[in-house]
Amino acid sequence: MDMRILAPTGALGAGFDTAALGRGVAAGPHVIACDAGSTDSGPAALGSGTPKLSAQAVTRDLRLLLKARDTLQVPLIIGSCGTSGRDDGVDWVAGLARTIAAENNLHFKLGLIYSDQPAERLQHLYDEGRIRPLDNAPVIERKLFERSHTVAMMGVEPLQELLRDGCDVILAGRASDTALFAALPHLNGADPGLTWHMAKTIECGAACAIPPGANGLLVTLRDDHFDVTTLADGSRLTPRSVAAHTLYENADPFHIAEPSGTLDTTHATYEAVDERTVRVRGSRYIEADGYTNKLEGAELVGYQTVIVGGVRDKVVIERLPELLPMAKKYFDTKILDVFDGRVDPDTIDINYRLYGTGTVLAGTEPTPLQPQELGVLITVTAPDQSTAHAISTFVAHASSHLPIPEYDGLVSTLAYPYSPPEMDRGPLYRFTLNHVATGVTPTELFRTTTEEV
Asked: CA 69, CA 75: separation in Å to the nearest integer?
């Protein structure tokens, strides 16, 4: 076994150095794989269907990867298209690929994998007790599936179906990041422990390099080890930097769950081959008793207007924590008055985040902070945008003139950097699921199509 896998970047559209890609192509990889999605940026992409990265950025990267694939005549696999892996995200990237192919006289067999889950299917699984919560999952009820846009996260098996079918380019919906890199080696009989560990190492491109970056990595997978090499000039790998990536997005760096089992890195070793390459041995893969697919969902919860302000007055800073609850009570009365009872204050959320006093740690700051300046983010969330904006106008006005007991007369409490200060942020979404579907076959939740491009 001597298989080479090229991970050109951490995310399609994040960019990469063309010279680094050239080095990867020159090494003759057997497959190019790239992630295109994430939940890191929150639920908006899944809820709205709007990709995080621009069409221009995604097109640039995709064009280079399609040309590289054409040069090598090897498979190109891209997962979680459109950031969230929604069906329309797959169709969006597929449309870009067709345009690029026409403009550059490229020809390939295209495979598409869709991962959207109909509400009826999810309700059936729910009724049969086959949707299981993961740690810290929210409590769910049957009707949730009617208002939540839900995708299932695939493992290697749907990808392997299209590889067997001779697809040159595979664009997948929501996928385990590691499955993109493990699919072909696993299909060719590579050691599963090394395969999944290799895939975990390169899932984010050169994130495990020093310095971390969006550029690529090349893996050479052999029978009893794999070598991972950084491709960008000025970057290097160390045993520590490679090992550290097993902790990325995992509470336990030694046991990493996949749909079909668990990667066990307890006895893995990491050895520097040279400044750019690290050799890894000793990983193993423990097959699960049953197959599971993670479910991710997002729903619309309202519309939001934001106000950004700041204050440097020490007295105002000290008084704000006790003044803001009073202000909120005033706003409830104001809402009833202004809207003549047509808007229920309980449907409106007015939130103040005081940056400089421990907002990021949400009240768990180990030592009290005494800021000289305070940044204030005010969010007004309502069932519709016009109501959110209307309420934000008097929230902004009142917040800039809060009554300070130590001062006589009218005081300016918050300063706004923009005029007008109210900025409509649009729809607001929340994640609805942190669950898995159980008792499923590896491919039953996914749909595939193929075409000649």
From this structure: 7
Tokens of 238: 């160390």
What tokens were used for 441? 């076959």
Closest CA to 293 of 443, 141, 75, 161: 443
pLDDT tens digits for the chain (453 residues)?
A: 899 999 999 999 999 999 999 999 999 999 999 999 989 889 999 999 999 999 999 999 999 999 999 999 999 999 999 999 999 999 999 999 999 999 999 999 999 999 999 999 999 999 999 999 999 899 999 999 999 999 999 999 999 999 999 999 999 999 999 999 999 999 999 999 999 999 999 999 999 999 998 899 999 999 999 999 999 999 999 999 999 999 988 889 999 999 999 999 999 999 999 999 999 999 999 999 999 999 999 999 999 999 999 999 999 999 998 899 999 999 999 999 999 999 999 999 999 999 998 888 876 777 777 888 999 999 999 999 999 999 999 999 999 999 888 888 788 899 999 999 999 999 999 999 999 999 999 999 999 999 999
The one-letter amino acid at 160: Q
Contact between 431 and 40 under an 8 Å Cβ cutoff? The reply is no
The amino acid sitting at 75 is P
C-alpha 378/C-alpha 394 separation (Å) is 12
Does this model's pTM top 0.90? yes
- Alpha helix (H) ranges present in 53-189? 55-72, 87-104, 119-127, 144-147, 156-164, 177-187
> Phi-psi bin for 22: left (phi > 0), alpha (psi -120 to 50), beta?
alpha
The label of the residue with tokens 């050479």 reads 220
Beta bridge partners of residue 173, listed in sequence order:
none
Burial group, residue 213, by CB count within 10 angstroms (0-12, 13-18, 19+):
buried
Dihedrals φ, ψ of 346, to 5°?
A: -70, -15
Strand pairing report for 292-311 and 435-438:
antiparallel
Alpha helices in 253-343 (DSSP H): 314-338
- What letter does residue 115 receive in the DSSP assignment? -
